[in-house]
Amino acid sequence: MKNDYIKELSSQVERKSVTYQNRYGFQIAGDLYSPKNRNEVKKYPALIIGAPYGGVKEQGPCVYADELAQRGFIVLTFDQSFMGESEGNPRHVSSPDIFTENFSAGVDFLGLQKFVDREKIGVIGICGSGGFALSAAQVDTRIKAIATASMYDMSEAIRGSGQLDQTALQSLKEKLSMQRWKDTENGYPEYIPSFPIEPLKEVPEGLDSTSELWFRFYGLKRGHHPRARGGFTTTSSLTQLNFRLLDYIHEISPRPILFIMGDRAHSKHYSEMAYAKALWPKELYVVEDADHIDLYDRTDRIPFDKLESFFKENL
User: Fold this and answer.
1) % helix / strand / coil in the chain, to the nearest 5?
2) C-beta separation of 103 from 133 below 8 A
3) Is the Cβ–Cβ distance between 11 and 61 less than 8 Å?
4) Which of 78, 67, 74, 85 minimizes the C-alpha distance to 33?
5) Where are the beta strands (DSSP E) in the chain?
6) How far is CA 53 from CA 26, 115, 132, in A?
7) 48 burial via Cβ count (<10 Å: 0-12, 13-18, 19+)
8) Residue 301: DSSP 8-state
């Protein structure tokens, strides 16, 4: 399955499979992209790109990495722990702490590469990784600049973005807590995938608008990957309910943050809320005629010129 990337690799880019450990001892599987004409004695700026929540490195991250490597960056993509080719059992467990840590583990890895300038390392978080990338930057000052695309704050999303009243929230906690009994009795956690093992030709009927959006990417040939079938173990939501990702986003300043969102994205409010809480320097960049998933893979929508200038100016 090593050739199941959703974008063909440019002839100007070299991609190498790598592994490294996070501070918990989990082995992380990644891909390291670099310009083929790389000067062996030069140190390059580097970027870490995180996949959407539940996604893998062969999807959106490979699109960003291939383009940005052509523009002079060393780029690391990776699978989160419990996902893709990275270690961690049981599979499909979500941990906001570990998912945040894995960005810093990427900094560790890049800083040891002789061709990387460890003082010029930035991160890009796509969708849910936007929240984890920002969370890592709150405490890891080695991350010098941060960009998000179609950002999701998963700690807010699991809580219904403030729309759940106390009764509904209590009911959710009760349901998830009771699921732990079932998981314990079964000896494994419940995981209900959202997308088929093989891509379908069209979106099934009867889905709500948001579910249809996800299916257009993950369930069809466009972005399908057999290791990214959507969602996490049911009880993973308990940890998200108990974790606040962006309480200290203001402490990233004076390092710069670029929030990128589509003008038609249902997720705009996450970028807008994070932008409001962040201190300067910060920028909210709106892509015209783009929905949430357009910033995963559409090279005619992803503002690569903006990303290039942002990181070259700030790294």
Assistant:
1) 35, 20, 45
2) yes
3) no
4) 74
5) 13-21, 27-35, 44-50, 74-78, 116-126, 145-149, 257-262, 282-287
6) 19, 30, 10
7) buried
8) T
Q: What parts of the chain have a pLDDT lower than 50?
A: 1
Q: List the 116-126 sheet strands across, edge first.
A: 13-21, 27-35, 74-78, 44-50, 116-126, 145-149, 257-262, 282-287
Measured CA to CA, the distance from residue 95 to residue 58 in angstroms comes to: 21
What pLDDT score does 310 carry?
A: 98
- Taken in order of first residue, the domains within the chain and their CATH numbers are 13-153+245-314 (3.40.50.1820)
The tokens for 192 are 């209900």
| Angle subtended at Cα 311 by Cα 306 and Cα 315, rounded to the nearest 5 degrees | 160
pLDDT of residue 2: 55
Predicted confidence at residue 298, as pLDDT, reads 98
Provide the terminal-to-terminal Cα distance of the chain, rounded to the nearest Å. Answer: 34
